[in-house]
Amino acid sequence: MADEFRDADEERSFHAHLAHFDRDAHVVVDGVRFAFAQDDLRAIAMDVRYHIYVPSGLNSAVYSRVVTFAKVKFRPRLARAQILDLCAATLRTTVDDVERSLAWTANYMAFHDGGDPEAEHPYPPSEP
């Protein structure tokens, strides 16, 4: 994957952002190991490199992007709970923290855009 950086500072920042991810995180379902590939994490880091960190931890945009990426990549082979387990492990946090971040994003986007939180949710609890 070719990375495009504006300058050396942005490249250093990108590589520091990769350190936020547990590159060895995985879940095992029915004897099959599921994990993000290194190129997956690089793509995610490139997508969110301007949003990755806030003083209280990772930005909600990072959580949402990781979950959305996992949902597209691993459904229907993994259920929602298993996808969130993988995302939490990758983000070095808990499923509860991931759920809170996704709910915050849904409520913020609904407020911002005048929509419905369920429609704005990156991975609504009602989905499999």
Radius of gyration equals 15 Å
Reported for the largest beta sheet, the result is: 2 strands, antiparallel
- Please give the alpha-carbon distance between the first and last residues: 31 Å
Low-confidence stretches: none
**Domain tally:** 1
The average pLDDT value, as a whole number, equals: 86
Dominant shape: globular
Strand arrangement, major sheet: 1-2
- The proportion of residues forming helix, as a percent range, comes to 55-70%
Number of E strands: 4
Helix-strand pattern = HEEHEEHHHH
Tally of DSSP helical segments: 6
What is the strand content? 5-15%
Helix/sheet category: mainly alpha
Describe this structure in words.
This protein has 128 residues and is mainly α. The protein has one domain (29-120). Helix content is 55%, strand content 8%. The chain has helices spanning 8-18, 38-48, 60-74, 80-90, 95-113, 117-120; strands at residues 27-29, 32-34, 53-54, 57-58. A two-stranded antiparallel ribbon has the order 1-2. The radius of gyration is 15 Å and the shape is globular. The relative contact order is 0.13. The mean pLDDT is 86.
Summarize the structure.
This protein has 128 residues and is mainly alpha-helical. It is built from six helices and four strands; from the N terminus they run H-E-E-H-E-E-H-H-H-H.
Question: How does the SSE layout of this entry go?
Answer:
Elements: H1 8-18, E1 27-29, E2 32-34, H2 38-48, E3 53-54, E4 57-58, H3 60-74, H4 80-90, H5 95-113, H6 117-120
Antiparallel strand pairs: 1-2, 3-4
